[in-house]
């Protein structure tokens, strides 16, 4: 029935003119009513589905060739060893998926507590070259349904070279004492801007919000409520959606990816009290937990150099290490801007990849110790899952290159068929939570990641010691 409604909605513009215009003009009028981005998106999705159909067809036609390829691979010691490792990896990931699925269904977000129960809260907004966007962020926060007397709002300009400070001044002029603004003497990085905010804040709970994000009116109270109901809670991750998904195709794809990453993965992790990363776009921390690790966090190094990336994952890691639970609130939404071009996308992923390598090394130092009371199997399994992805990055890259050069058609058909099978879960999940017609971007995103971003993890591993935010530049004029 849902598909029928979507088809009916898409065809509605045609129905209005079907009996009043020659058939030759119907399609042209309909296409002229669409935006160029809509037409481009329709074309890309059409090509995606054609590739999926071809994959199914080729998979059927070439099944004997694929069987023969596997037999040949098993005939050598190296090939047999790799196949055993691959099967073991797939069995683990498959079992881990079922494990996550079980905990996803058990997950329930925590309902908002009353105004009297809400703790004092300091919201910190670090900004660098955000222009008017920081003003929009601050206005969305000040309109939160949170007791005014319990809310402290701090905005910190990290040495911007555009008009970010002017927009902060304008927000201060409108909001008066409800907003405090600070300006770093020079650009020192997001971690230092947050550090200043932590030291200036006086709330029982710290909330960090990226300056390119917009929150819903009930976001803050929903995000903070778990600290009241669970005294062992040290941090809470918010639910991140894409703000600029109507501007180009990449944000549409990333929105589907974010929904799976947050509403499925973090829901399962939350049920295990072990969310591994609280996102910079929206996260909350118990002040005692922050101050307990703040000196270590601001002075964190990797291979002899001060860390200037991955501040959110590092803070989460240090709070987990203290024995606290880290949770996820599905009902605490923030909408954030994401890259619209490939160059911005791969730079963002490289930064995330390097942070992931660093923090997995740090997590390995405590996760198998008695770091908290109660069961510790869950965080250990989560750690192993992330570590295996890193460990297997190079073997799979080498196998892919070998497969491409020796059996290119088999590689393409099996890869597209795998994308179709594995991404269907993302499609179903997103369609169930939001809009069916937008869920199909999961297939396109998987194709993009497989063929255009496969090199990210191997590259991040060998360059994990490199510093730099990579995407901190002036926003493009629109």
From TrEMBL:
Report the subcellular localization.
Cell membrane
What are the transmembrane regions?
39-60, 80-102, 381-403, 409-430, 442-462
- Name the InterPro entries for this protein: Nucleotide-diphossugar_trans (IPR029044)
Keyword list, A-Z: Cell membrane, Glycosyltransferase, Membrane, Transferase, Transmembrane, Transmembrane helix
* A Pfam entry, by short name: Glyco_tranf_2_3
Does this UniProt record's set of keywords contain Nucleotide-binding? Answer: no
Name the UniProt record assigns to this protein: Glycosyltransferase family 2 protein
């Amino acid at each position: 029935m849902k598909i029928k409604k979507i088809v009916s909605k898409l065809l509605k513009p045609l129905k209005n003119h079907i009996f009043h215009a020659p058939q030759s003009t119907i399609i042209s009028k309909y296409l002229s009513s669409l935006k160029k981005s809509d037409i481009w998106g329709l074309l890309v999705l059409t090509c995606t589905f054609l590739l999926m159909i071809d994959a199914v067809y080729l998979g059927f036609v070439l099944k004997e060739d694929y069987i023969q390829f596997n037999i040949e691979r098993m005939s050598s010691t190296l090939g047999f060893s790799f196949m055993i490792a691959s099967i073991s990896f797939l069995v683990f990931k498959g079992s881990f998926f079922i494990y996550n699925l079980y905990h996803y269904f058990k997950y329930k977000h925590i309902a908002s507590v009353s105004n009297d129960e809400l703790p004092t809260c300091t919201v910190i907004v670090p900004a660098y070259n955000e222009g008017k966007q920081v003003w929009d962020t601050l206005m969305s926060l000040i309109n939160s349904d949170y007791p005014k007397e319990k809310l402290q709002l701090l905005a910190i300009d990290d040495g911007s070279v555009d008009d970010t400070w002017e927009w902060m001044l304008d927000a201060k002029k409108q909001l008066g004492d409800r907003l405090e603004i600070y300006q770093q003497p020079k650009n020192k990085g997001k971690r230092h801007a947050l550090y200043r905010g932590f030291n200036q804040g006086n709330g029982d709970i710290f909330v960090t919000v990226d300056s390119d994000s917009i929150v819903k009116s009930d976001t803050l109270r929903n995000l903070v409520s778990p600290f009241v109901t669970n005294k062992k809670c040290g941090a809470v991750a918010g639910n991140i959606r894409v703000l600029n998904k109507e501007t180009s195709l990449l944000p549409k794809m990333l929105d589907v990816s974010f929904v799976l990453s947050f509403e499925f993965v973090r829901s399962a992790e939350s049920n295990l009290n072990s969310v591994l990363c609280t996102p910079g776009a929206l996260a909350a921390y118990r002040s005692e937990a922050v101050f307990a690790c703040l000196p270590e966090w601001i002075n964190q190094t990797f291979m002899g150099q001060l860390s200037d990336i991955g501040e959110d994952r590092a803070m989460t890691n240090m709070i987990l290490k203290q024995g606290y639970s880290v949770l996820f609130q599905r009902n605490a939404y923030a909408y954030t801007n994401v890259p619209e071009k490939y160059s911005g996308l791969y730079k963002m992923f490289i930064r995330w990849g390097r942070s992931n390598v660093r923090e997995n090394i740090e997590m390995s130092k405590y996760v198998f110790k008695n770091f908290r009371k109660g069961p510790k199997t869950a965080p250990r399994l989560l750690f192993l899952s992330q570590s295996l992805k890193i460990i297997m990055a190079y073997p799979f890259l080498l196998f892919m290159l070998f497969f491409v050069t020796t059996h290119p058609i088999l590689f393409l058909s099996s890869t597209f068929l795998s994308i179709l099978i594995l991404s269907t879960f993302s499609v179903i999940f997103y369609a169930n939570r939001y809009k069916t017609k937008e869920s199909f971007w999961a297939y396109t995103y998987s194709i993009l990641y497989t063929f255009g971003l496969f090199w990210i993890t191997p590259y991040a591993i060998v360059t994990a010691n490199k510093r730099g935010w990579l995407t901190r530049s002036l926003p493009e004029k629109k």
